[in-house]
Design a protein that fits this description.
- The chain is built from twelve helices and eleven strands.
- It is an alpha/beta fold and 319 residues long.
- The protein folds into two domains: 116 residues, 3-Layer(aba) Sandwich (Rossmann fold), CATH 3.40.50.720; 182 residues, Rossmann fold (3-Layer(aba) Sandwich).
- It is globular and about 70 Å long.
Length: 319
Protein backbone atom coordinates (compact mmCIF):
# COMPACT_ATOMS: atom_id res chain seq x y z
CA UNK A 1 0.00 0.00 0.00
CA UNK A 2 1.35 3.41 -1.01
CA UNK A 3 0.47 6.12 1.52
CA UNK A 4 1.20 9.84 1.05
CA UNK A 5 0.80 12.32 3.91
CA UNK A 6 0.46 15.72 2.26
CA UNK A 7 0.87 17.94 5.33
CA UNK A 8 2.51 16.02 8.16
CA UNK A 9 4.02 19.29 9.37
CA UNK A 10 0.59 20.35 10.61
CA UNK A 11 0.57 17.48 13.11
CA UNK A 12 4.19 16.55 13.92
CA UNK A 13 6.53 18.94 15.75
CA UNK A 14 10.20 17.91 15.66
CA UNK A 15 9.29 14.22 15.49
CA UNK A 16 7.19 14.25 18.66
CA UNK A 17 4.37 12.15 17.18
CA UNK A 18 5.21 8.56 16.28
CA UNK A 19 4.42 7.61 12.66
CA UNK A 20 6.05 4.16 12.59
CA UNK A 21 2.63 2.51 12.60
CA UNK A 22 1.89 4.14 9.25
CA UNK A 23 5.32 3.19 7.93
CA UNK A 24 4.52 -0.44 8.77
CA UNK A 25 1.45 -0.39 6.52
CA UNK A 26 3.45 0.01 3.32
CA UNK A 27 5.39 2.66 1.46
CA UNK A 28 4.87 5.85 3.46
CA UNK A 29 5.87 9.31 2.18
CA UNK A 30 5.28 12.32 4.45
CA UNK A 31 5.57 15.93 3.30
CA UNK A 32 5.64 18.88 5.69
CA UNK A 33 3.13 20.72 3.52
CA UNK A 34 1.83 20.57 -0.03
CA UNK A 35 0.64 23.40 -2.24
CA UNK A 36 -2.53 22.87 -4.24
CA UNK A 37 -0.68 22.71 -7.55
CA UNK A 38 1.57 19.90 -6.26
CA UNK A 39 -1.13 17.52 -4.97
CA UNK A 40 -1.52 15.47 -8.15
CA UNK A 41 2.21 15.08 -8.71
CA UNK A 42 2.96 14.03 -5.14
CA UNK A 43 -0.02 11.67 -4.87
CA UNK A 44 0.22 10.21 -8.39
CA UNK A 45 1.04 6.70 -7.15
CA UNK A 46 -0.86 6.88 -3.86
CA UNK A 47 -3.52 4.38 -2.92
CA UNK A 48 -4.10 6.33 0.30
CA UNK A 49 -3.81 10.06 0.90
CA UNK A 50 -3.60 11.56 4.38
CA UNK A 51 -4.49 15.25 4.55
CA UNK A 52 -5.18 17.59 7.42
CA UNK A 53 -5.95 20.80 5.55
CA UNK A 54 -4.59 20.36 2.02
CA UNK A 55 -7.46 20.67 -0.46
CA UNK A 56 -8.38 17.45 -2.28
CA UNK A 57 -10.56 18.81 -5.06
CA UNK A 58 -12.70 17.10 -7.66
CA UNK A 59 -10.09 17.99 -10.24
CA UNK A 60 -7.35 16.32 -8.22
CA UNK A 61 -9.47 13.22 -7.54
CA UNK A 62 -10.20 12.82 -11.24
CA UNK A 63 -6.46 12.92 -12.01
CA UNK A 64 -5.50 10.27 -9.41
CA UNK A 65 -6.65 6.90 -10.84
CA UNK A 66 -4.76 4.87 -8.22
CA UNK A 67 -6.39 6.66 -5.28
CA UNK A 68 -8.68 4.41 -3.21
CA UNK A 69 -8.90 6.04 0.23
CA UNK A 70 -8.54 9.51 1.81
CA UNK A 71 -7.80 9.68 5.53
CA UNK A 72 -8.43 13.18 6.87
CA UNK A 73 -6.21 13.86 9.87
CA UNK A 74 -8.81 16.06 11.53
CA UNK A 75 -12.43 16.01 12.57
CA UNK A 76 -13.58 18.49 9.92
CA UNK A 77 -13.33 17.29 6.34
CA UNK A 78 -14.43 20.25 4.24
CA UNK A 79 -11.02 20.21 2.52
CA UNK A 80 -12.11 17.09 0.58
CA UNK A 81 -14.71 16.95 -2.18
CA UNK A 82 -16.57 14.03 -0.64
CA UNK A 83 -19.12 13.90 -3.46
CA UNK A 84 -16.42 13.47 -6.09
CA UNK A 85 -14.76 10.85 -3.89
CA UNK A 86 -18.04 8.93 -3.49
CA UNK A 87 -18.58 8.96 -7.26
CA UNK A 88 -15.19 7.27 -7.65
CA UNK A 89 -15.86 4.82 -4.83
CA UNK A 90 -13.17 6.42 -2.69
CA UNK A 91 -13.84 6.29 1.04
CA UNK A 92 -13.12 9.37 3.16
CA UNK A 93 -12.55 9.05 6.90
CA UNK A 94 -12.11 11.53 9.73
CA UNK A 95 -11.05 11.33 13.40
CA UNK A 96 -13.70 12.61 15.82
CA UNK A 97 -13.18 13.39 19.48
CA UNK A 98 -9.40 13.34 19.67
CA UNK A 99 -8.92 16.94 20.92
CA UNK A 100 -11.70 17.32 23.50
CA UNK A 101 -9.46 17.76 26.53
CA UNK A 102 -6.90 19.86 24.66
CA UNK A 103 -9.52 22.39 23.53
CA UNK A 104 -11.24 22.49 26.91
CA UNK A 105 -8.01 23.26 28.73
CA UNK A 106 -7.16 26.10 26.32
CA UNK A 107 -10.59 27.60 26.94
CA UNK A 108 -9.78 27.68 30.63
CA UNK A 109 -6.27 28.96 30.01
CA UNK A 110 -7.91 32.00 28.40
CA UNK A 111 -10.49 32.30 31.17
CA UNK A 112 -7.83 32.13 33.87
CA UNK A 113 -5.62 34.64 32.08
CA UNK A 114 -8.53 37.10 31.97
CA UNK A 115 -9.32 36.47 35.63
CA UNK A 116 -5.75 36.65 36.97
CA UNK A 117 -3.81 38.86 34.49
CA UNK A 118 -0.94 36.42 34.96
CA UNK A 119 0.85 37.42 31.75
CA UNK A 120 0.60 41.14 32.50
CA UNK A 121 1.99 40.77 36.01
CA UNK A 122 4.83 38.57 34.75
CA UNK A 123 5.64 41.20 32.11
CA UNK A 124 5.65 43.91 34.77
CA UNK A 125 8.19 41.94 36.80
CA UNK A 126 10.31 41.38 33.68
CA UNK A 127 10.38 45.16 33.16
CA UNK A 128 11.54 45.71 36.74
CA UNK A 129 8.27 47.19 37.99
CA UNK A 130 8.26 45.06 41.16
CA UNK A 131 11.71 46.22 42.14
CA UNK A 132 10.56 49.83 41.88
CA UNK A 133 7.37 49.27 43.88
CA UNK A 134 7.00 51.17 47.17
CA UNK A 135 4.87 48.37 48.63
CA UNK A 136 5.45 44.62 48.81
CA UNK A 137 3.40 43.91 45.69
CA UNK A 138 2.06 45.47 42.50
CA UNK A 139 -1.68 45.98 42.61
CA UNK A 140 -2.31 47.11 39.07
CA UNK A 141 -4.92 44.81 37.52
CA UNK A 142 -8.34 43.90 38.87
CA UNK A 143 -8.45 40.12 39.33
CA UNK A 144 -11.39 38.01 40.42
CA UNK A 145 -12.40 34.49 41.35
CA UNK A 146 -14.32 32.19 39.01
CA UNK A 147 -16.53 30.70 41.71
CA UNK A 148 -20.09 31.87 41.23
CA UNK A 149 -19.48 33.35 37.78
CA UNK A 150 -21.73 32.29 34.91
CA UNK A 151 -20.12 30.25 32.14
CA UNK A 152 -22.23 30.21 28.99
CA UNK A 153 -21.59 27.49 26.44
CA UNK A 154 -23.08 27.56 22.94
CA UNK A 155 -22.89 24.05 21.55
CA UNK A 156 -22.86 21.26 24.11
CA UNK A 157 -21.27 18.27 22.43
CA UNK A 158 -18.20 16.51 23.79
CA UNK A 159 -16.02 19.64 23.92
CA UNK A 160 -18.76 21.88 25.26
CA UNK A 161 -19.50 19.37 28.01
CA UNK A 162 -15.81 19.06 28.89
CA UNK A 163 -15.67 22.85 29.27
CA UNK A 164 -18.80 22.67 31.41
CA UNK A 165 -17.22 20.07 33.67
CA UNK A 166 -14.19 22.30 34.22
CA UNK A 167 -16.57 25.14 35.00
CA UNK A 168 -18.27 23.05 37.67
CA UNK A 169 -14.88 22.18 39.16
CA UNK A 170 -14.22 25.91 39.56
CA UNK A 171 -17.60 26.45 41.18
CA UNK A 172 -19.08 28.28 38.21
CA UNK A 173 -22.72 28.32 37.19
CA UNK A 174 -22.84 26.64 33.80
CA UNK A 175 -25.41 27.83 31.25
CA UNK A 176 -25.31 25.40 28.31
CA UNK A 177 -27.25 25.90 25.09
CA UNK A 178 -27.93 23.27 22.49
CA UNK A 179 -30.92 22.63 20.27
CA UNK A 180 -31.73 19.24 21.75
CA UNK A 181 -32.14 18.08 25.31
CA UNK A 182 -29.18 17.62 27.66
CA UNK A 183 -29.13 14.19 29.27
CA UNK A 184 -26.56 14.92 31.98
CA UNK A 185 -28.48 15.98 35.10
CA UNK A 186 -25.60 18.20 36.24
CA UNK A 187 -26.45 20.66 33.48
CA UNK A 188 -29.73 22.46 32.85
CA UNK A 189 -30.30 23.68 29.29
CA UNK A 190 -30.60 27.46 28.97
CA UNK A 191 -32.13 29.45 26.14
CA UNK A 192 -29.75 31.09 23.69
CA UNK A 193 -30.77 34.64 24.62
CA UNK A 194 -30.22 33.84 28.29
CA UNK A 195 -26.76 32.49 27.60
CA UNK A 196 -25.80 35.56 25.57
CA UNK A 197 -27.20 38.10 28.02
CA UNK A 198 -26.25 36.57 31.38
CA UNK A 199 -22.86 34.93 30.86
CA UNK A 200 -19.72 36.31 32.47
CA UNK A 201 -17.76 34.04 30.12
CA UNK A 202 -19.23 32.85 26.82
CA UNK A 203 -17.52 29.93 25.07
CA UNK A 204 -18.43 28.85 21.52
CA UNK A 205 -18.47 25.13 20.66
CA UNK A 206 -21.06 24.73 17.90
CA UNK A 207 -20.34 23.85 14.26
CA UNK A 208 -20.31 26.48 11.54
CA UNK A 209 -23.54 26.17 9.57
CA UNK A 210 -25.75 28.65 7.70
CA UNK A 211 -27.69 29.02 10.98
CA UNK A 212 -24.62 29.76 13.11
CA UNK A 213 -22.68 31.97 10.70
CA UNK A 214 -22.26 35.40 12.32
CA UNK A 215 -24.21 34.16 15.34
CA UNK A 216 -22.14 36.55 17.43
CA UNK A 217 -22.50 39.87 15.62
CA UNK A 218 -22.91 43.55 16.43
CA UNK A 219 -26.41 43.08 17.84
CA UNK A 220 -25.71 39.97 19.93
CA UNK A 221 -22.42 41.38 21.23
CA UNK A 222 -24.31 44.43 22.47
CA UNK A 223 -26.64 42.13 24.42
CA UNK A 224 -23.71 40.66 26.35
CA UNK A 225 -22.63 42.07 29.70
CA UNK A 226 -20.05 44.86 29.42
CA UNK A 227 -17.93 42.74 31.78
CA UNK A 228 -18.31 39.59 29.67
CA UNK A 229 -15.43 37.69 28.07
CA UNK A 230 -15.92 35.78 24.79
CA UNK A 231 -13.98 32.65 23.81
CA UNK A 232 -14.13 31.10 20.34
CA UNK A 233 -12.28 27.83 19.71
CA UNK A 234 -14.90 26.46 17.30
CA UNK A 235 -14.97 28.07 13.85
CA UNK A 236 -14.09 31.60 12.79
CA UNK A 237 -17.25 32.38 10.86
CA UNK A 238 -19.45 31.95 13.93
CA UNK A 239 -18.24 35.31 15.24
CA UNK A 240 -18.38 38.31 12.92
CA UNK A 241 -14.77 39.39 13.13
CA UNK A 242 -15.21 43.05 12.16
CA UNK A 243 -18.04 43.40 14.66
CA UNK A 244 -15.90 41.84 17.40
CA UNK A 245 -13.04 44.27 16.72
CA UNK A 246 -15.49 47.16 16.95
CA UNK A 247 -16.95 45.80 20.20
CA UNK A 248 -13.51 45.41 21.79
CA UNK A 249 -12.37 48.89 20.78
CA UNK A 250 -15.60 50.43 22.07
CA UNK A 251 -15.59 48.46 25.34
CA UNK A 252 -18.88 46.75 24.52
CA UNK A 253 -17.46 43.58 26.11
CA UNK A 254 -14.46 43.23 28.42
CA UNK A 255 -12.36 40.98 26.20
CA UNK A 256 -12.12 37.98 23.92
CA UNK A 257 -9.92 34.98 23.23
CA UNK A 258 -10.00 33.78 19.62
CA UNK A 259 -8.25 30.66 18.32
CA UNK A 260 -9.99 30.36 14.94
CA UNK A 261 -10.52 32.77 12.06
CA UNK A 262 -12.71 32.68 8.97
CA UNK A 263 -9.62 32.21 6.76
CA UNK A 264 -6.36 30.72 8.01
CA UNK A 265 -3.63 31.83 7.97
CA UNK A 266 -5.07 35.36 8.13
CA UNK A 267 -4.47 37.75 5.28
CA UNK A 268 -5.73 41.17 6.30
CA UNK A 269 -8.18 39.81 8.88
CA UNK A 270 -9.37 42.65 11.15
CA UNK A 271 -8.67 40.56 14.26
CA UNK A 272 -5.00 40.13 13.35
CA UNK A 273 -4.36 43.87 13.27
CA UNK A 274 -2.07 45.13 16.05
CA UNK A 275 -3.33 47.08 19.02
CA UNK A 276 -6.79 45.59 19.53
CA UNK A 277 -7.50 45.96 23.24
CA UNK A 278 -8.19 42.97 25.49
CA UNK A 279 -7.81 40.41 22.72
CA UNK A 280 -5.97 37.09 23.01
CA UNK A 281 -5.44 35.77 19.47
CA UNK A 282 -3.83 32.36 19.02
CA UNK A 283 -3.04 30.55 15.72
CA UNK A 284 -5.57 27.68 15.82
CA UNK A 285 -3.68 25.73 18.47
CA UNK A 286 -6.39 24.74 20.95
CA UNK A 287 -6.51 21.23 19.44
CA UNK A 288 -2.76 20.72 19.37
CA UNK A 289 -1.67 19.31 22.74
CA UNK A 290 0.85 16.50 22.24
CA UNK A 291 -1.55 13.86 23.54
CA UNK A 292 -4.27 15.06 21.19
CA UNK A 293 -1.96 14.90 18.19
CA UNK A 294 -0.89 11.41 19.21
CA UNK A 295 -4.53 10.30 19.46
CA UNK A 296 -5.22 11.92 16.10
CA UNK A 297 -2.55 9.94 14.27
CA UNK A 298 -3.49 6.70 16.00
CA UNK A 299 -7.02 7.37 14.77
CA UNK A 300 -5.78 7.95 11.22
CA UNK A 301 -3.79 4.73 11.38
CA UNK A 302 -6.81 2.81 12.68
CA UNK A 303 -8.99 4.14 9.85
CA UNK A 304 -6.43 3.10 7.23
CA UNK A 305 -6.02 -0.34 8.82
CA UNK A 306 -9.80 -0.80 8.67
CA UNK A 307 -9.75 0.15 4.98
CA UNK A 308 -6.99 -2.41 4.35
CA UNK A 309 -9.18 -5.11 5.94
CA UNK A 310 -12.12 -4.14 3.76
CA UNK A 311 -13.94 -2.56 6.70
CA UNK A 312 -15.23 0.95 7.34
CA UNK A 313 -14.15 3.19 10.21
CA UNK A 314 -15.34 6.80 10.60
CA UNK A 315 -16.39 7.00 6.96
CA UNK A 316 -17.99 10.39 6.20
CA UNK A 317 -19.13 9.66 2.63
CA UNK A 318 -20.79 6.24 2.71
CA UNK A 319 -21.96 4.91 -0.63
Amino acid sequence: MNIVFLDAGTVVLDGDVELSGLEALGRFTPYDNTQLEDVVERAADAEVIISNKVLISREAIEKLPKLKFIAVSATGYNNVDIVAARERGIGVSNVPGYSTDSVAQQVFAAILQHATHLAEYAADVERGEWEKSEIYTILRYRCFELRGKKLGIIGFGDIGQAVGELGLAFGMQVLPYRRGAIADARFQRAELDTVIQESDFLSIHCPLTPDTKDLLNKDSLKRMKPSAFLINTARGGIVNEADLVEALKAGVIAGAAVDVLSAEPPRGNPLSAPGIPNLILTPHTAWAALEARQRLMLGVQSNIEAYARGEQSNIVNPA
